[in-house]
Every structure is written in structure tokens, then in C-alpha cells.
Known about the structure:
By secondary structure, this protein is mainly alpha-helical. The protein folds into two domains: 3-86, Arc Repressor Mutant, subunit A (Orthogonal Bundle); 89-140. It has helices at residues 21-35, 47-54, 58-70, 88-113, 118-131, 135-140, and strands at 74-77, 81-84. The longest helix is centred in the C-terminal third of the chain and has 26 residues, at 88-113. The two termini are 36 Å apart.
Amino acid sequence: MPENVSTLQFPPLSTGGAAPLYQQIVEAIRREVASGRMPALSPMPSFRALAAQLAVSLITVKRAYEELERDGLILRHQGLGTFVAPGGGHRSRAERRNAAIAALRSAVRAGREAGLEDRELVEILQRELVESQPPTAQKTGGQR
């Protein structure tokens, strides 16, 4: 297995979580690709290697990979392995961006329905932006 395959970072998986295990794997890989930690054409672990790493069944990993392949995020080549698809990170970032915009629109609607004024909504958003910055950015006052 190539060296960079083992760099995948997964949060702890939970059988009691809201999402099934395969979906937790899908989301973790989407995050890795969207963040740029897994650039295009990066090799993915084999089903067996990832199943062993995460202590899940081969079927769980297979299902996650099938969903990622269907979504165009990864490519599987018989005999060569599985790789991050070219442009996969852009698709994933675009999906996350669209989801964030939809969530903000929904929050604005909910705020207005709750009687908040635009000024209050902006103040709340600004406060959330400051509070959600990593500790190093808060210390330096840096913007992201």
C-alpha cells in the first residue's frame, strides 16, 4: 500500500450514531477530500485495509466506496486500486458550500419568523464566526 494511503484521518465511528457506519465513512472521506488533505488521484486504502483500520466489516467499506464512486468522488480501477477522482474535491466543496448557503438562508428565515431584526441576525452571525475560529486565529485576531 502506498505511504500516503495511511494518512486518512477518521473520527471515531459510532454504531450508536445517527448515521450508519458506512455513511460516517463517506462523510469522513468527503471532509478529507474537501479539505485538500486528499488531492486528486490520491490512492485510497483497499477495502480490507480500511475495514481493518476502522474495525468494521468489508461490506461496510464496500458500501461507502460504492456511494463515493456513484457521487463521482472516487474512481476504482480493477487491478490498480481506488483513487480520489480529478475534480472530486471541487464537487465536494461545492456541495458543502451549497449546503452552508441553504443552512444560512434557513437560519435567516427562522430568525425573522422569531422576530429578530436584520441587525440582530448580523450580530449573531458575527459572534458565531468569532467563537468558531480556531484558538490560534482568536489569539491573533486573524480572519479566515
